[in-house]
Specification:
heterodimer, A: 4-stranded antiparallel β-sheet, 5 helices, B: 5-stranded mixed β-sheet, 4 helices
């Protein structure tokens, strides 16, 4: 799966609809329509789990996104795009599982990865996947990072609404970190949109945008939307099972 | 053409083609009125370009016309500051803004990554409930440009905007679309022509220089 950001999606729609890029009001209205459209077409399930980049502050804490409901993973981001996860310090009772990431079995699984630098590592855990985070089209929509079983590189804990970082070489002021979290708001979790759905979403949004002012033009966008929808349905029937599961759950274990 | 040259032209024209101390309008008066004439000329040009763009869009479905000429815009580096009372960040406008219809005076606001720009909207009510998707949203309030979605206070942003005519210094080049210089001159002439022969009251006698010399 390849994703594009909401910002890029809106800019693209403005380009297709000949709406000037400088028109901020049109941008805001398109974002509202896009948000509603993606919600109504029920395409916003996957992006409920988001990743953001944050910078370590001088007191070794990370800012938590405003819509964060639960933190899943924290890792250091290196300049070449690789991520090294940090261990989590237990702040939960012993009778709970040590990993609350959805789909995590708690045990490492034999790994396949498209990432060259991690190819020599024997074991991966699905808990080490950062969802919806893409640096280049060489990777498969999700980045894999090496699991360090001992997490000597550092640890983190989520206390009082703040992520606190604990000693290790990957803990340092100014280091870029990636936080994977569950967003509290479905509609606003539209950080990334599946590129394959782009044509369908674009035509639906332009139809809604021009419906009142240019009904004739909107009719053409409606026809294009129906065609894109039919194409998508045809594509879905040919989609491998793991792709469908990934589209619903937002993550997958094998690339 | 500089502002001084423009004023000199108008002054020369008002005094009948020959510089004279007999004229009741001074150069400094012309300088005061200059921003009014300049802003008027820009607004006329804005409407003309807007209509041209509309026509092109109707004919071809696409327009090459910008609403504002790029050469009239200035890019200023600005640093966001915190408005603690409102919990928002803002940048102070570095020059007084040319207020044009549809917020056209502010062209764009962006950081060093030009692939992500702020969307300029009318006010906070336009983006209520919206989480910024790109760089964020921005709107003008007085002499400030408020930002929604800006995370930094010590970073440098770049504001591309259209300055009001009052910001043009005496020896600055007056950047105007071709042919609009004439409109500025005409507006200034039109305003001061009626003042040209007003008698000046030098002392309390209500007599002008011409009467006194007799």
């Amino acid at each position: 799966m390849t994703f594009i950001s909401v910002d890029k999606a809106i800019r693209t729609i403005m380009g297709f609809g000949d709406i000037p890029q400088s028109n901020g009001l049109a941008y805001a209205r398109l974002q509202r329509i896009l948000s509603a459209t993606v919600g109504e077409l029920q395409l916003n399930v996957a992006p409920k789990i988001l990743s953001v980049i944050a910078t370590t502050s001088p007191d070794y804490t990370l800012p938590v996104p405003a819509d964060c409901a639960k933190v899943y993973k924290v890792g250091r981001l290196f300049e070449d795009g690789t991520i090294r996860t940090l261990g989590r310090i237990k702040t939960y009772p012993d009778d709970q599982t040590s990993c609350d990431c959805p789909g995590c079995s708690g045990t490492p699984v034999s790994g396949q990865s498209t990432s060259g630098e991690t190819a020599t590592v024997a074991a991966y855990c699905d808990a080490c996947i950062f969802h919806n985070f893409l640096f280049s089209n060489l990777r498969y929509g999700e980045l894999y990072s090496v699991r360090n079983d001992h997490f000597q590189n550092g640890n983190w804990s989520y206390e009082g609404g703040t992520i606190k970082l604990h000693s290790g070489p990957d803990v340092g002021v100014g280091f870029k970190m990636v936080i994977e979290y569950e967003s509290a708001f479905n509609e606003e979790s539209l950080n990334l949109i599946d590129f394959a759905d782009g044509e369908m979403i674009r035509n639906k949004v332009l139809y809604e945008f021009f419906k009142a002012s240019k009904p004739g033009l909107a009719g053409m966008y409606w026809n294009d939307f129906k065609r894109a929808l039919a194409n998508r349905n045809r594509r879905l029937t040919n989609m491998p099972n793991e792709e469908i599961v990934a589209a619903i759950t937002g993550y997958k274990n094998t690339p | 053409m500089t502002k001084r040259e423009l004023i000199e032209l108008v002054y020369l024209n008002l005094s009948g083609g020959k510089l004279s101390s007999d004229i009741q309008v001074e150069r400094v008066d012309l300088a005061f009125y200059f921003p009014v004439a300049y802003n008027y000329a820009i607004l006329q040009d804005y409407y003309e370009r807007h209509n041209l763009a509309r026509q092109e869009r109707a004919d071809q479905g696409f327009t090459s016309e910008n609403k504002i000429l790029g050469s009239l815009l200035t890019t200023f580096p600005v640093v966001p500051q915190e408005d603690t009372a409102r919990g928002l960040r803002y940048v102070a406008l570095p020059a007084s803004l040319m207020v044009l219809p549809g917020n056209r005076g502010i062209d764009s606001l962006f950081g060093q990554n030009m692939d992500s720009m702020f969307a300029i909207v009318g006010g906070p009510e336009d983006v209520v409930g919206l989480t910024p998707a790109g760089a964020g949203f921005a709107w003008v309030e007085g002499d400030r440009l408020y930002l929604k979605g800006c995370d930094c206070t010590d970073c440098t942003l770049f504001l591309r905007m259209m300055s009001d005519g009052g910001n043009i210094g005496l020896d600055d080049t007056v950047r105007l679309p071709a042919g609009r210089e004439d409109l500025v001159i005409s507006k200034m002439m039109e305003f001061y022509m009626k003042n040209r022969f007003i008698p000046q009251n030098i002392v309390n006698e209500n007599v002008d220089d011409a009467q006194k010399s007799k």
